[in-house]
Each structure stands twice: as structure tokens, then as C-alpha cells.
Amino acid sequence: MQIPSDMTAVEISSYGGPEVLKPVTVPVPQAGPGQILIRIAYTGVNRPDALQRAGNYAPPPDASPLPGLEAAGHVAAVGEGVTRWAVGDAITALLPGGGYAEYAVTAADHALPVPDGMSMDRAAALCETFFTVWTNVFKRGELAAGERFLVHGGSSGIGTIAIQLAKLRGARVFATAGSDEKCAACVELGAEAAFNYRETDFVEAMRAEGGADLILDMVGGPYIPRNLDALAMDGRLVQIAFLQGSNVEMDMMQVMTRRLTITGSTLRPQSHTAKAAIARALEAEVWPHLAGGTIGPVMDSEFALVEAAKAHERMESSAHIGKIVLKVA
Asked: What confidence tens digit (pLDDT) does each residue in 33-55 have?
């Protein structure tokens, strides 16, 4: 595969709104030891990209400053010590950054094969969401079959995957969303019920079901004490984002009296080894279901790479259902 010296990318020209995303020409990165260079076909658009754009989610010191945390394409080059992948292999990968570009590098063991029969646009929508859901819902949250699981933002990229995986593994799934259309989408994906948060108090709704054994929340702010109220005895709250803020005042007594657990994580700062372990678990436990078509990403919309600003506007409007991707090649 012939690799050019320069490529088109989208950079964060200054911190701010979607308009600060600007197309630029930059050098193509090189694969170092243990890394692969990917010729990107599509890249996923995620909330952390918007946080980085706003100056609130700095990339690791050794990562590309370009946004973009997942992509699908073909291996263009392999670094020293890489044996699993060869030039031309179709892969989807978790990236430390740099996905808004024609080429990006990542650790070879953070890549996975494109599931059989899956298109590149859908493959680009896998890694950030599946890595996040797997580690937070099933590892930190320890969701088990038969338990009651509530996911906020059920129609988001994270939410649509969380619903499908939880249902697949035998949980009773509930969701919140901001419209009847979004709630219907959640039910179609496998939620037992979905609550329009503009009309229904999810605390009362979950208490009527016996309380949630696990809640996955990305809203934060005033939702945090309400989440505790919605939990069953020995319930767990997993926090993965704070769209409405991380500072909140609440009475923690019920954490002790009802034996509640509050935890959470972010994906990007986790170690190379931790991300590789998640990739191996996903390939063994989840990838066969993707190849079989049992589950899969819900696609909302597609934009050209140079239209990244429009993609961010779409994401931040919260009108989308599922994943937004950028077409690169």
C-alpha cells in the first residue's frame, strides 16, 4: 500500500464550538513498535470529541492532538513486533486520538477484525461505545442475568449498545430518552420499557419495578441523587459522563443504609494493558454476535470528514438516535 507524506485531517483550531473544527493538511503519522497505521475509511463521532474541542478532555501526552477515538479501515503499515495484522487487513480500532484524518496510528492490540458481513461505516461505530459499555456495565457494574438495568440516554450511541448487550445477557432493561420517538427506538432494541424524561419520573417508574439493580448514567448533575433514590437495595450506580455537571449536594446516608455502590470510569486514560484486555474480551464474548447480526450499532447519520463541524452540531443537538460517523475514504 502506497502511503503519502501528507494527509487531510480536521484539527481543533482553538477551543470552542463546532466551528473551531477546521480541515488542514498534516504529515501522515508513522507506526512505532507495537503499533499499526490505519488507512481510515470511516471514523466515529463521540461526546468526548466535543469535550476535547471545548478544552475539557486533553489527549494523553503521547497521542495525536487531533480528535477521533475510533475508526475502521485497512492496515496501511505495521510497526516493529506486530505479528497479528498485515497490510490490507480490514480492522476497526480504538484510538488514543487522531481519528479525524485519512490515517491514524494505534496500538496493534487495540484493534479488532471487522465483523463478517459488516460495512465499514458500521464498523467505525463499534469500538468507543462497546469498550465503554463492556467495562462499565459488565465489569465495574457487574450486571447479571435477571437484574433490572436502567440506562439514561437510551437512544444515544452508548445507550443503544448498552440496551442490546444487557438484553443479550439476560437482564431486564429500562431506559430514559427525551421523546416518544426515542423511547420507541429503545423498546425496539430490547428495552422492556422506556421513559420519556420530559413526562415521566424515572424514580417512581423504577421503584414500581422494585428499583434498579444497576444504573448507567451520563447525565450527572441533578440526576445523581435521583439515581440513588431509584436504586434497589445493594444497587450500583455507574457514572460515565456529566452532561449536566459533576458538582452536586446530596445525602449519602442511604449509601450506607441501603448498601449502594457508586463507581465510574473514563476510557481514554486507562492503561494500554487494560484496553487490550477489553479488546480480547469483546472479541471472545461479543464479536460473534456482531458477525451473526444478533446485535449491532444503530446508525444515525454520515458526514464527510471536512464536515466534522456539522457532525458535532448534530450530536450536540441531541436529535440523533444512535451513532454519527465521518466518511473519510
From this structure: 999 999 999 999 999 999 999 99
| Rounded Cα gap, residues 320 and 240, in angstroms | 19
Q: Which domain holds residue 54?
A: 6-126+269-327
73 has a pLDDT exceeding 80: yes
Any alpha helices (H) in 10-87, and if so which ranges? 47-53
Confidence at residue 1, expressed as pLDDT on a 0 to 100 scale: 77
Cell, residue 254: 442511604
Residues shown for the chain: 329
For 74, the 3-state DSSP assignment is: strand
1 domain residue, yes or no? no
Gyration radius (Cα) of the chain, Å: 20
38 and 109, same domain (yes or no)? yes
Q: How many CB atoms lie within 10 A of CB 16?
A: 12
Same domain, 139 and 251: yes
**Residue 185 within a domain:** yes
Assigned domain for 162 exists: yes
CA–CA distance, 19 with 316 (Å, rounded to integer): 13
Task: Read off the pLDDT of residues 97-147 as tens digits, 9 standing for 90 and up.
Answer: 999 999 999 999 999 999 999 999 999 999 999 999 999 999 999 999 999
| CATH number for position 208 | 3.40.50.720
